[in-house]
Amino acid sequence: MHLVAMAAGFALILLGLYGALTHRNILRMIVGFTLANTGVHVVLVSVGYMPGRAAPILDGAVPVGEAAARIIDPVPQALVLTAIVIGLGITALMLAYAYRLFRARGSLDIADYTELKW
Amino acid sequence: MVSAIFIIAAGLGAGFLIGLLREEQKGAAFAVALAALGFMAWVSVSWFIALASGTAQAHDIITAGTQPPFAINLRMGLAEAGLLSVITLTGLASLIYMAPALHALGRRAFAVLVILVMALSGLVLTRDIFNLFVFFELIVIATGGLVLLSDDKRAVAAGFKYLVVSQIVGILLLIGIIFTYHAGGSLNIDDIAAQPMAFTGAGLALFLLLIALIVELKPFPANGWALDIYESAHPGFSALFSAASATAALYAADKLFAAAGPDWLPLATVLGLVSFLGANLLGLAQRNDRRLLGYSSIGQIGLVLVVVGQRDILGDAYLYVAGGILFTHAVAKAGLYWISGLVPGRDLADWAVLRANPVLLFAFAAFIAMLLGLPPFAGFYAKWDLAHALTGADRLPVLGLVLLGALIEAGYLFRWFGFALKRPNPVAFPGFSTTGFAVVLVALAGGWGLGFAWGAGSVHGNLLLAAPLIFALAFLLLEPLPAWAKNILAIAGLLGWVALRAPEYDPLHLVFALVMLAGGAVILLASFTAKGERLGFYPSAMVMYAGLALLIDAQTSFQFFAAWELLTIGSYFLILRGRESEPHALSYILFSLGGAFAILAGFALASGGLQPFALENLAAIAEAGLPVAPWVFVLLALGFLTKTASVGFHIWLPGAHAEAETDVSPMVSGILLKAGLFGLWILLMHMGAQRLWGVDLTYLLVWIGALSAFLGAVLAIFQEDAKRLLAYSSISQMGYALFGLALMNHLGWLLALMFVINHYVYKSMLFLAVGGVYHRTGTKLMYKMGGLITLMPFTFVSVLVGIIAMSGVPPLSGFGGRWVFYNAIMSSEMRLPVVLIFMSGPIAFLYLFRLIHTIFLGQPKDEHRKLREAPFWLLVPQMIFVAFLIGFAVLPGMVLRKVDAYIGGHFGDEALAWSGRTITSQFGYWNPVAIMLVIGAIFVIVLALLLMMNRNAQKVKQFNIVFSAERPFKPQTTHFAWNFFAPYRKALGFLEAPHVTRFWGGITDSLHATADFTRRIYTGNGQTYAAQVLVFVVAVYLVVLGGVS
Amino acid sequence: MSFEWIQLAYAALTVFIVINYGLIMTAVVQKIGARVGGRYGIPVWQNYIDLVKNIALRSKISHGVMFYLGPVFRLTGGIGLLLFVPTIYGSVMHQNFAFAGDLILALYFVFFGTLGMALGAGESGHPHAAIGVSRGLAQVTAAELPLALAVFAISLQYQTLSITEIVAAQQGGIFNWTLFTNPIATLAAMFALVGTMMRAPFDVVVAPQEIPIGPPTEYHSAYLALMQTNRVLFPVAKTVIYMNLFFGGASNWAEFAVKVFAIYMVSVLVGVVHPRFRVEQSIRFFLKWGLPVGILAILVV
């Protein structure tokens, strides 16, 4: 199961990057990166998954003493939460940039913004 | 001691606090940011001082009350403290510098800046890779915010491209992190086990982590996005981006490389080298100042990455070397970006406005010197140690490439400085912002401070404490004084130093000290002609003399090399002062630095990486017959030959010497060229003849000397410009001296020494004389003059004596040189090169006669009829030289006898016998007093006869000459001067073909063409950049994989 | 060798003899040339007449100090060259001032008069003088080269730079002369002799037809007299060096007279049968023919 998830995650990453690199529209690029980020998140979670174990919530079902042997690794899940938040921040910033670019030039084509080169 | 956690806390706190303020409370926002950054800087610096002085220990900061790896820990060590100091201080300075722009953007901008500095600090402090990621993303966001500060509309697009690439880096980083965690079960850097460079599981994860961090360092060629930011962002931010962001990212990479184990270091080395060379090469084609600085930044970070790759061999010196380069770069680059913010235009030549403020110009020069690792700055010590470590570990290709990259960087940086100093000032200049200026000054002080600190930490002693250098630098502070006052001080300093040191020198060193330093004082007499303050002259000249003084004193290879670089820099600035000397000064500094790098490599090779290395130890290497010995010889000789402008490396000389100022020409010709001879002397004295592939290298040197002597003379006769003529003649004369030295016998060396003395005297004298003529006529073209003998009689006398002495005609001192020459070649086995020397002797007559005839004889021009004699102070040293030449001609023993004995001690023979006034060799004899008396007596008798017969000769007017049925009426048609040796050109003009110039020109042209072609990979399209990053990662992966399997 | 005052008188005697010899010899050579051409030619005392006439000339002008000093330099160069070389081997009287220096002194002193003369001519402001100097200097760089190499070769051969010792080494029979012991060096030197005697084909410097007599154009009266004196003295002084180096020297004045005349005639003979070279032609000539012989001389010695 987790291998499927991991494969799906990598597939999403590649798909997202492919999209970001082939679409010249800035908004589509951003969507591509969001997709890729989602893929990364899936990979993260899938790495922490261990078959046959419980969610890392310490309650009656999983006594503290046995936790280490019975729950999946909680760290990747914690990481994923952080990563999602940060990803959101970056996506927001990119969208803000897209807005400013559009305001400045009336175009969302990335190929229109090549004055800086060489 | 305040815990380092408060650096993060203060940053975050200030960020939130500013967020709470109302929009119009910008002043308060600025105050909060200032206080926060000030506090952060204070904590960092106090830690740095405490750690560096040993009063505190490095320690780990545990968060959340839990031990790592279950909680994030931060580490504060010496390296971290140093980096934090740089980052926070740069942040503070940039805050002040950018305050107006930040105000315009609103109070949140202040918060973003504080957060950026906080995140950079966090990147340095943290020991947790996920935390690393978090700080990294924070930096991305803050950077994205601050790029918008710029007035440049294009910055928005640049910021977007940056975000696109950051997304990719973020993805790589996250995947790398999670798999590293998966492999090791820990997110703590200290728990990452060293991995072999194999691509299974943990290895691949580590690769992803490392490559993500390397991409963050903007490696060539996956770095177009960074260049766009550098070009378009606010310069205050670019300063941060280059000095702080790059520094922090580099440290993050370093932490992981340390954890990953030695297997991965070659990756850093190779990628670093590619960046360093690639970025510097592409920098050649740049015209935009900020983009150029961006290229340079990328290159320098690449260089530090190379150092990271050498951490296995650097050992304890690692921090010293990496820090020396990194910190110097940070300070210099920040300083340059800050200056760029003060310059209104974006073209390199627009920096000419800096001439309005000499302090800024000085700062510009100092920053360039820092970037290039020139003494006395910190990078110099680091570069030296790096070179020695590399040779010690036999990583010579790395050393070679690093030096090559540095040379290319020197090329565009010094060209730029030339623009600033020489190009027309393009705009009416409004004046510099005071705060900006102050911030630049802080960077400048920081750079010097670093230089001092690194010097204090060096095993070789602190260059900034060397008396001659202190004396020279003191002239910076004395600049407001009038030139004459500074001149008196300079002369007193030179003479005082010689008097102080002379008792300790052996005769050989004494002669060099007298020629270079006492001789320098004599030439400085001519500088009394200058009016006003003469800004820049004395610091440059005195740095050159300080270099020369230290060169003579040098005992170890380090001292020698440091002195060599100092005199090179000083003389470069001196030469650059000439009106038309911009391109010539550039070619001078490039040849000199190329030569200096050869010397550095040679010394490093000789020492085998062990320091300090005494110069005498060269002899031990030669005696032991080590296989490196001939290579050491070749490298050192190459370095010295660039300074003596031997044929092949001579093309810088004519322009540099001819276009220099009147009193500078004799300094750089009469004195500076001798530094090369001095080096060769040290080399040959200690290493003797070396053989490479069965060829005796001294034999090669003999040929080079002979060719230089011949070609220099041939080229001299075809010059129309008097100073160029003299300059080519210097090439020829140095060829003679090199020839003598390379003969490797007693008389050959004596010959070289006579040339050291004689060439100094007559070349200085002639340059001053011609300079005086130039002063009056305003032209250096000889055919525009004529008949000046009656108008400038003293100058004429000095030229007359000078050319008689130089041509070797008895009775003046040049003849002694010729006599020694014949005796030297008779004791040598060399035959064929002698032919060239024989030929160059008479050819010297041609150009010398041309010099005196076309200027002083023939027909005076109408516009020159009212000329006055050259200025008094130009004549004073000339007359001293005239007196010396005559004295030296009659009594050569007063100088030569002791040196003769000294050289005899070296060769264990006694080539000359000094009995009474006669000097006898194995083959012949020479009595200078008798020669002088006989010639004098005959001359007087014949003159008396003529006076008796023709005492009543009538002086006639200019055109009263017997002519072929014509009546000449204008001097232009009657003065035979232009293309004076036309028949010679017909016969031997093919020798004039500029093959060497074409060769070097071809190299630089192809470098430029490559640069201009290659930089087109930066299309400006964000998608291309992103694709480049991905291709780069994959390519590196494949190459590494190929390397492993 | 030490100096005694009587040497001054001896030296004066040498100069006196050589000047008179030169005055007559050059006239005789002229005369021979004329007779070969079927003309009557000048009387052998013609040079004396010219000298006296020039000295007696009443109009005397000067173009300046260097102009005035030019002939002085010139004649000093000639006399000095003569006196720095022992004229008669084995004669105490005619060792002259050879103690002041060896062969190298003589070789370099050759240029003293040339240089001074060129400077004096330069100040006259006459373009023809400057053109002559330009041609002369250009030519001499190539022409002197074989001599320099030959001298190097024979000083290596004899392992000395002292002229007296070189002559001494050639004593004891005609086959001890350098001419026979080292014919290549001698041949090389003869290229230089022919090239520097101001005779055809290498006389474009004074170019008697096209421009009035090159460097001396503006010189007249006593100036010209001094230069004429030098023009008879200097070739002899130079020939003496050749004689000493390659032809066994002379142990008495008779031998001197014969040898100098014979050596001088070499250049005369070459001159009368060859047209004049332009400067670049003579440079090429010496580089193509003289230089290889000279190089051969130093390689085989």
UniProtKB/TrEMBL annotation, chain A:
Family: Belongs to the CPA3 antiporters (TC 2.A.63) subunit C family.
Primary localization: membrane
Subcellular location: Cell membrane
InterPro entries: CPA3_antiporter_subunitC (IPR050601), NUOK/Mnh_C1-like (IPR039428)
Domain of life (superkingdom): Bacteria
Transmembrane segments: 29-49, 78-99
Pfam family for this entry, one: Oxidored_q2
Protein name listed in UniProt: Cation:proton antiporter
Claim: Membrane is one of the keywords in the record: yes
Source species: Sinisalibacter lacisalsi
Membrane topology: Multi-pass membrane protein
Keywords tagged on the record: Cell membrane, Membrane, Transmembrane, Transmembrane helix
UniProtKB/TrEMBL annotation, chain B:
Membrane topology: Multi-pass membrane protein
Any one Pfam family match given in the protein's UniProt record, by short name: Proton_antipo_M
Keyword flag Transmembrane helix: yes
Cellular compartment(s): Cell membrane; Membrane
Domain of life of the native organism: Bacteria
Keyword list, A-Z: Cell membrane, Membrane, Transmembrane, Transmembrane helix
Predominant location: membrane
Coiled-coil region(s): none
InterPro entries: CPA3_Na-H_Antiporter_D, ND/Mrp_TM
Sequence ranges assigned to domain NADH:quinone oxidoreductase/Mrp antiporter transmembrane in this UniProt record: 128-401, 558-838
Transmembrane segments: 6-21, 28-50, 78-97, 109-126, 132-150, 162-181, 193-215, 236-253, 265-285, 292-311, 317-339, 359-378, 398-417, 429-453, 459-477, 484-502, 508-528, 535-552, 558-576, 588-608, 628-652, 664-685, 697-718, 725-743, 749-774, 786-810, 830-849, 870-891, 925-948, 1025-1044
PANTHER family linked: NA(+)_H(+) ANTIPORTER SUBUNIT D1, NADH DEHYDROGENASE
Physiological role: NDH-1 shuttles electrons from NADH, via FMN and iron-sulfur (Fe-S) centers, to quinones in the respiratory chain. The immediate electron acceptor for the enzyme in this species is believed to be ubiquinone. Couples the redox reaction to proton translocation (for every two electrons transferred, four hydrogen ions are translocated across the cytoplasmic membrane), and thus conserves the redox energy in a proton gradient.
Family assignment from sequence similarity: Belongs to the CPA3 antiporters (TC 2.A.63) subunit D family.
Protein name: NADH:quinone oxidoreductase/Mrp antiporter transmembrane domain-containing protein
Organism, scientific name: Sinisalibacter lacisalsi
Automatic annotation (TrEMBL), chain C:
Topology with respect to the bilayer: Multi-pass membrane protein
Keywords per UniProt: Membrane, Transmembrane, Transmembrane helix
Chief localisation class: membrane
Subcellular location: Membrane
Keyword Membrane: yes
Residue ranges crossing the lipid bilayer per the database entry: 6-29, 65-85, 97-121, 133-154, 174-194, 256-273
Name of this protein: NADH dehydrogenase
Organism for this UniProt entry: Sinisalibacter lacisalsi
